[in-house]
Fold:
Amino acid sequence: MTDGAIFLLTDRPDRSAALETILNTVGRCAVVAGEETPPSGAPVAIVSDLTLSRRESVGRLRALMPSGQAARPGPVPVAGQAGRIPVICLMRSTSDGDLRQARDLGATVCLPAYTSPHVVAQVIRDQVAARDETARGVAGQGIVRATEALTGLFAGARVGGVTLGVVEAGLTPILAAVREGGLTRWLDTVWTHDDATYQHCLLVAGVSAQFVNFLRFPEQDRQHFVRAALLHDLGKARIPQAILNKPGRLDADEMAIMRTHPVIGYEILRDSGCDDATLGAVRHHHEMLDGSGYPDGLVGSAIGDTVRLLTICDIYAALTERRSYKEPMPTRDALAVLESMDTKLESGLVRCFGDAMTAVAP
Structure:
């Protein structure tokens, strides 16, 4: 990391010692507790372990924020991304209002307060790499365009309506980023996203782009498939944040609520002008060939080609994605899980998918 310190703002220094130790492996960590005067010079990153419901905590974070960073909340234009430093907010609460407040203050990533210090350190490394990548090339630009699309879609879905036009601007950048920069670079950039649902959609979109690039689909079909990947979890916009962000396994009641998201997404999109194949992918991406899936228990030939492809990408992304409470599954192990689902997934497509994921180039 470049010269300068990582500022660790904390209102509980006794509990931040482990985090300070780990951050010192990334760069020089300067702890700023209570009313202490921060070190001179601009920080290269900020980690806020503060209770942001307190006015004095908000003031402390705002005072250290680089000029202009807090003035442009939300998706950041590609040209401006390189000027933003990583600002990681460890959140005691992850309600929509609390997350919005942190982002308005200039946070680039929001993580639950229980997140492992090792994960926080890796996020800082990834954020720096993503910032540099955005300034340099197509992978970062693709992430920004796709995140802008998801932000607009989910915001509209929460209040009742969506505009599909915003999705179209993200399709070509995603395909180009994966084709030219490779899936690994795309995934390394996606890991820095703080919203678990957005992160998952971006992962599925990147994996889907790799798959259809490998299959050499016509450009129109590639865009159609990546569009379905971006939209597939739109129904989660109306699932409570406490369920979406719960660390660990959901209980039976929570799982029942989570399983409503395919139908919710379908109903949101049904009157939007969305094509039938994409609507089917949104509603049926959890269906299985043996009828064990949901919400409609479809069997065999009742499941369309787009759904069959997307379900494989979705499961693979879920197995390999990072979470604060679990390690990502290695590619080889995730592919073995897919191969074991031979009664649920189309075996020939799974084998082809494995070739796509292990290919040196698409």
